[in-house]
Amino acid sequence: MYYLNGDYYELTLKQKLSYFFISLTIISFGNGLSIAAAMGAAPWSAAAVNLSNITHLPTMLFLAIEAIFAAAVNLLLVDHIDWHRAAGNMVFGLLFSVFVAEFANFFQPFIVGLPLIIKILIDLIGIWAIGVGISIIQRTNFVMHPLDGLTNLARFKFFHGSAPLGQISNFIVAVSISLVCWLVSGKILGYGIGTLYCFFLQGNNIAWGDQHLFKHLLHIDPTKL
């Protein structure tokens, strides 16, 4: 739904699809940058990297598994199950897994030899881009990555609409997975300044996107759909 010139309107399918691909590209781009910079990925991406390290299976596989896990939790948290939306969220999550891997593989050769401060800056830009993309897709209320859907549900169901608290509650699970991997392997990968920035400030990035990008798009409480 969006607000324009004093009236409320439902988004058309064409508009929803446009915002869908804009969001998917921005979120995947940001994750790819942060993984390639290796200065600290978003917590769920870092969890996938650590699971890949201890199992020697592709990171993309665990990104997909995380999407499936989050989709299942989302179904448990809503009062009414919209199977079409759930299927769409899974499509988003699986496309995201592929896009992130492709972006990371593309950027890595260009970033690996850069000075440390430039890598940190690239990483922070990537994390910021993820938050901006999440803001857009949540307000479009079409389909989104199941993990972002989980954040949105937690935001309104448990934290009175607070984006920062909803995001942190989501990330605690991802960090716990990485800590278990660290206990198994003796090392932890994908963590750094970017992860800290993401953990504590990603909710603020989402809130910033709500206020400054596509401002006509409105947030709808997913627990009331």
Helices and strands in order:
Elements: E1 2-4, E2 7-9, H1 13-37, H2 43-55, H3 59-77, H4 83-111, H5 116-140, H6 146-157, H7 163-185, H8 193-212
Antiparallel strand pairs: 1-2
Transmembrane segments: 20-40, 60-78, 90-111, 117-137, 158-182
Protein name: YitT family protein
Keywords: Membrane, Transmembrane, Transmembrane helix
Can you describe what's shown?
This protein is an all-alpha fold and 225 residues long. It has one domain. The protein contains eight helices and two strands; from the N terminus they run ββαααααααα. It has a two-stranded antiparallel ribbon. Strand 1 and strand 2 form a beta hairpin. The two termini are 12 Å apart. This is YitT family protein. The chain crosses the membrane at residues 20-40, 60-78, 90-111, 117-137, 158-182. Keywords: Membrane, Transmembrane, Transmembrane helix. InterPro entries: YczE/YyaS-like (IPR038750).
What's the short version?
With 225 residues, the protein is mainly α. It has helices at 13-37, 43-55, 59-77, 83-111, 116-140, 146-157, 163-185, 193-212; strands at residues 2-4, 7-9.
Mean pLDDT comes to 84
Task: Describe the largest sheet.
Answer: 2 strands, antiparallel
Query: Would you report the number of β strands?
Result: 2
What distance lies between the first and last C-alpha atoms, to the nearest angstrom?
12 Å
Order of helices and strands: EEHHHHHHHH
Q: In what order do the strands lie side by side in the largest sheet?
A: 1-2
The helix content is over 70%
